[in-house]
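Escalated from tier 1: flavin mononucleotide holo job.
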Amino acid sequence: MESLLIVVGSQSGNAAMVAQTLKNRLEQLGIGVDMLPEDCADPSTLVGRSWVLVCCSTHGAGDVPDNLVALMNELADQSVDLDGMAYGVIALGDRTYSDTFCGGGRRVDGLFSLLGAQRVGSMLEIDASTQPFADEVALQWLPGWLQDVKTLSPH
Ligand SMILES: Cc1cc2nc3c(=O)[nH]c(=O)nc-3n(C[C@H](O)[C@H](O)[C@H](O)COP(=O)(O)O)c2cc1C
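Tier 2 regenerated the structure:
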């Protein structure tokens, strides 16, 4: 099975910590994982990938973290074709930002979908204002997502 690519959008480390915890768990399960370098702005790194997991927090007013801005812009400007990609989104936010809660993850979801990728399962939204253990929430969500991916494309 092709390695899973994890894309991280994180400014102060929470989403990056979630991504690292999931990487460890996935590798324990025998699943190969590539982590996209956080400063990667090259959209070709996503082309041809069959499954991708996004761990993305929210900054500004519902925006993706700074490290993902260039990649998002390049994907959109080049209308990169993501057809054939299944993806999941773990979005971190703070519900006290009521109008823009988890906006970063929603933006990635919207763009990937626009470019032809298919989201698998529901987006996991984690509220950092009430949930200090975001990685544990993500670990609970992971098996269901893996099952959904398997159902979509059994290997
Ligand atoms: C300056 C700033 C702006 C933020 N804006 C939003 C927002 O618009 N919507 C939201 O849901 N969370 C917002 N947050 C909350 C972060 O997304 C949340 O704290 C998250 O856990 C940070 O993860 P990170 O350390 O991976 O960047 C904001 C946090 C900061 C510090």
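The pocket of flavin mononucleotide is lined by residues 10-16, 57-59, 61-62, 65, 92-94, 97, 100-103, 128 (CB under 6 Å).
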